[in-house]
Amino acid sequence: MGSVKAILYKSKKRADEKFPIALRIIKDRKPSYIYLYWIEEKHWDQKKSKVKNSYHSAARLNNLILKKITEADDLILNFRTNKKPYSSSKITSLLKGGNNSKLFFEYSEQYFQDLSKLGKHSRLISEQGRIKHFKEFLGNKDIPFEEIDQGMLKRFKIYLATSRKVSERSIMNSLIVIRTLFNLGIKDGLVDQKYYPFGKNKIKIKFPETIKIGLEEIEINAIENLDLSKGSTIWHSRNIFLFSFYLAGMRVSDVLKVKWSDIKDERLYYRMGKNKKVDSLKIPLKVKMIIGYYEDEKRSPEDFIFPELKKAKENDSRDIYCKTKTATKKFNKYLDEIAQRAKIDKKITMHIARHSFGNIAGDKISPHMLQKLYRHSHLSTTIGYQGNFIHKEADNALESVLDF
Q: How would DSSP label each residue in 192-258?
């Protein structure tokens, strides 16, 4: 008959003076162990085989221990009832269930490795930073999923706002990464749904409203009419910005990936990097003029139109990401100078090209057509985005009240 008991396994000791709480399973005098959590010896009640109340998460850990003991007993009983042979290692293997012994930050490393393999480097870098902040908040220790409760997340929000001085939007983004990992952990059987700390009457993720400001027609004209030295970096930066604007705010990462072979019958065919959707747009005359500036540098139909990615390793998504990020930083630097020369009192970045198209489009184009141009999956996304730029009706309503 097999025996199951929770112990503090003192044969293992970490540099931080902590020992693992282990589930010891013995069958035919052969023991097998599952490590559940690491704590200091002073927090362990050896006589009662449980965590002392002096530990801040004693109740949760003792529930975890009891749950694992019950699962082990059930497995042993099932083998005995069905008169099937088993060993202590067989029981521990079934209890682990592959990933069931992983803690939160250990599991997050696997998640980040998957993002890297998928080439999602922008998301990887931003989310790694957010999880790093969460780990620092917890004193750089790993924890079970079950310990991440509403109280902990509320304290984390305060930590980010006060110690890290981050915005409310950044705080929400940090919570989204934790929520994503929690959902994956539930799916992979690492944690029970009942411990999920998000949702109704729990932690809610709500983004604050942001102000999106785009350029006006007169400001775009001012940029177009600037006398810039042909071939200079500032001239090239203006070309990239206007190319993006003329094509409904095409993202800079997509602009730099455009090849000569993507142009067929005066149309541009490309796959958006963000959502992998295929798009096709007629090339406006102003875009043709910009493309014409770079024809002398064309080496083959598969060559990039713009120079930033010409030396990139095309099969290396990280190299393309890094070169795109460097180029965007360069463009934004020169767009600051362009704003000064054009006497525009607004911050101009590559992303402002998208806002500018939305601002000038206003209510001139139907929401359904804008949805197609923006390549939004849902019309509600387009309506919400465009709501930042449509002010005519509200302005007229205000004027009508004050016209006395």
A: -GGG--BSTTSB---PPP-------HHHHHHHHT----TTSHHHHHHHHHHHHHHTTS--HHHHTT-
